[in-house]
Write a structure and sequence with these properties.
Elements lengths: L5 E6 L3 E9 H11 L7 E5 L4 E10 L5 H4 L3 H13 L3 E7 L3 E8 L4 E4 L4
Antiparallel strand pairs: 1-2, 2-4, 3-4, 5-6, 6-7
Length: about 120
């Protein structure tokens, strides 16, 4: 039977974990190749389903802090430092012509855009 990995986004101890869920047999065949390269941030075996959750990136909780406490230049700098230390490239969305409309966080496996609703 054909299958493909499932994408997941879940709360983790250091932020939002983004990754894939794969069959246990696939992981057994590929773990030796992937683990030493640092591709997988965390591994969660789901034995009752025969699957393994592989976190490929962790978006720090701090990127959502402006939604709760408001924006400041100091907070923006702290967020950029934290996200960069966790493998994300942070940049503002928009331009002088279109104006500012949020932030983008990119890494090798994902890109997340954040912006206010108003």
């Amino acid at each position: 039977m054909d299958w493909s990995p499932d994408f997941f986004l879940r709360l983790g101890s250091h932020g939002y974990e983004l990754g894939i869920s794969v069959h246990e047999s696939w992981w057994k065949n590929n773990a030796e190749r992937l683990e030493p390269r640092g591709v997988v941030k965390s591994i969660d075996h789901q034995y009752h389903f025969g699957r393994v959750r592989l976190s490929l990136a962790v978006l720090p909780y701090e990127v959502f802090r402006p939604f709760y406490v408001g924006w400041s230049k100091e907070l923006e700098q702290k967020i950029k430092e934290k996200s960069t230390s966790m493998g994300w490239q942070a940049e503002d969305l928009g331009s002088p012509e279109t104006g500012y409309f949020g932030e983008s966080y990119k890494n090798k496996y994902a890109e997340v855009w954040l912006r206010t609703l108003l």
